[in-house]
Structure formats: structure tokens, C-alpha cells
Automatic annotation (TrEMBL):
Signal sequence interval, chain numbering: 1-18
GO biological process entries: carbohydrate metabolic process
Keyword Signal on entry: yes
Matches recorded under PANTHER family: DIVERGENT POLYSACCHARIDE DEACETYLASE SUPERFAMILY, UNCHARACTERIZED YIBQ-RELATED
UniProtKB keywords: Signal
Phylogenetic placement of the source organism: Bacteria, Pseudomonadati, Pseudomonadota, Gammaproteobacteria, Alteromonadales
UniProt-listed Gene3D superfamilies: Glycoside hydrolase/deacetylase (3.20.20.370)
One Pfam family hit: Polysacc_deac_2
Protein name per UniProt: Divergent polysaccharide deacetylase
Transmembrane segments: none
Length: 253
């Protein structure tokens, strides 16, 4: 029996009051200092920005730790934020979007899924999300919505395309101070206990890494299990398969 199957069995048979947390570190790849994040437990997933100075090197290093990697794909934001290299925009047609995704995936080897970097505009738009989910379905990748807008259509469209998907519940470090991060961490634990699973997103700030090094070892004492994101997405894939959506008829909403 594989390690993933064993973890999935544990996930499905939790005692009352227990829960699972999947933690994603976003924005990896721009800075040399991001390498400090590699001290975190291997269950923590790295979401790596494409075409950045360390994107390929960090993805390969993560693989040596058996650490899971996601493509952290820049997408157009409503506020007009500066987009990273290889970003997806509303002006692109399906072919351009999929070419950008393909190039980005090449720069982040070993990626098993995708989450959006920014994207408060693009994730609200049907056609760009359909092109994105069609690509992910072809590549057999999952999607996690960073939820930069409550109006996102991404999860709904991913489901229609048969792409395993979910969304994050908590951003841990919008403010990089211990009081704020502790409050957000406690909130993540409450969600995991109530709903069995929760996804948190953080960033490779020095303050965040220090906080996580102190806080993550305490999870087990609380009855909370830190799991690789693939374990949670395996459950999502099974649920999606059981619902048997007819992905041959996907189209505009």
C-alpha cells in the first residue's frame, strides 16, 4: 500500500475533534532567501512562481525532499497590480492562455497542481477559466483557488471540466506579526476541526517561517495532522469521480 493511500485512509477515519491541515507556501522562486523555507516539514507544499530566478532550482530541490510542488500562476487582478512573468490576462484567447500555462509548467518541474497568484479579475471570467481548466484536465493537474475574490468562478468551472479542485480557507500572514499569524493559525485549526480539512496559505517571509517552525510541531498534540496537499486533492478527485460529471459537454455558462 502506498504512502498516499495510507494517508488517505487516515484522513477518512479521523476521531471526533481531529482534523487535517494542508499548508501551501506561495510566491516561492523570486528570492534567494526563499530557500530558508526548505526547513519546514516536507508535508508543506511550495507554490512556485514561473519564470523566476529560482523557479526551476527550487522545484527540483523540493523533489529531493519528497516535497510537493504547485505552479503558482500569475493572473490578472482588478486593481491592475503588476503581473509577474508569463501571466494570464483577459485579453488572451484560449490558445495564448494554454501556451502560457505550458511554458510556465516547464519552468516549474514536478508541479502536480496549480493555484492562482492574484487573479481577482481573471478568476471571475468564464472563458479564461474554461481555457485554464481544459489545460489542467489534459495535464491531469488539480486546481486550488487562492480566493482573491469572492466572485471567483474558478472552482465551479473546474468541477464542470472534471478537474479536482478546492480553495484555501485562511491566509496566515497578511500581516507579518505574531499576534495576527497566531489568530489566523487558530482559525485554521478551528476550521479543520469543524470541517475535517482546511487549507492555509502563507509566504516565505522570515517572520512567517519563524512562526511556522514554532507552531507546526504543536499540531499533533492538538489532534491535527499536517498533510501533503495531494492527500486532500485525492479525496476531491474521488468525490468528483463518484459524481460522474459529463465533461464532454462543457461549454460557456
Amino acid at each position: 500500500m502506498t504512502r498516499l493511500c495510507l494517508l488517505l485512509i487516515c484522513l477518512l477515519s479521523l476521531p471526533a475533534g481531529a482534523g487535517n491541515i494542508a499548508l501551501i507556501i506561495d510566491d516561492m522562486g523570486y528570492r534567494k532567501q526563499d530557500i530558508d523555507a526548505f526547513v519546514l516539514p516536507a508535508q508543506v507544499t511550495f507554490a512556485i512562481l514561473p519564470h523566476t530566478p529560482y523557479s526551476t532550482a527550487y522545484a527540483k530541490k523540493a523533489a529531493t525532499q519528497n516535497r510537493e510542488v504547485m505552479l503558482h500562476m500569475p493572473m490578472e487582478a482588478l486593481a491592475g497590480n503588476k503581473l509577474g512573468p508569463g501571466a494570464l490576462t483577459a485579453a488572451m484567447d484560449d490558445r495564448a492562455i494554454q501556451a502560457k500555462l505550458d511554458a510556465a509548467l516547464t519552468s516549474v518541474p514536478h508541479a502536480i497542481g496549480l493555484n492562482n497568484h492574484m487573479g481577482s479579475k481573471l478568476t471571475q471570467l468564464t472563458l479564461p477559466m474554461q481555457a485554464t481548466m481544459d489545460f489542467l484536465r489534459q495535464q491531469q493537474l488539480f486546481f486550488i483557488d487562492s480566493r482573491t475574490t469572492r466572485y471567483s468562478k474558478a472552482n465551479k468551472i473546474a468541477t464542470r471540466f472534471g478537474v479536482p479542485n478546492t480553495h484555501r480557507q485562511v491566509f496566515l500572514d497578511h500581516f507579518q506579526n505574531e499576534k495576527h499569524m497566531q489568530a489566523q493559525f487558530d482559525r485554521l485549526i478551528r476550521i479543520a476541526r469543524k470541517y475535517r480539512n482546511a487549507i492555509g496559505i502563507a509566504h516565505p517571509y522570515p517572520e512567517t517561517l519563524s512562526f511556522l517552525q514554532q507552531s507546526l510541531p504543536k499540531l499533533q498534540e492538538m489532534g491535527i495532522q499536517l498533510i501533503p496537499v495531494s492527500v486532500l486533492m485525492k479525496e476531491k478527485a474521488l468525490a468528483l469521480r463518484e459524481s460522474s460529471p459529463d465533461t464532454s459537454k462543457v461549454g460557456s455558462e
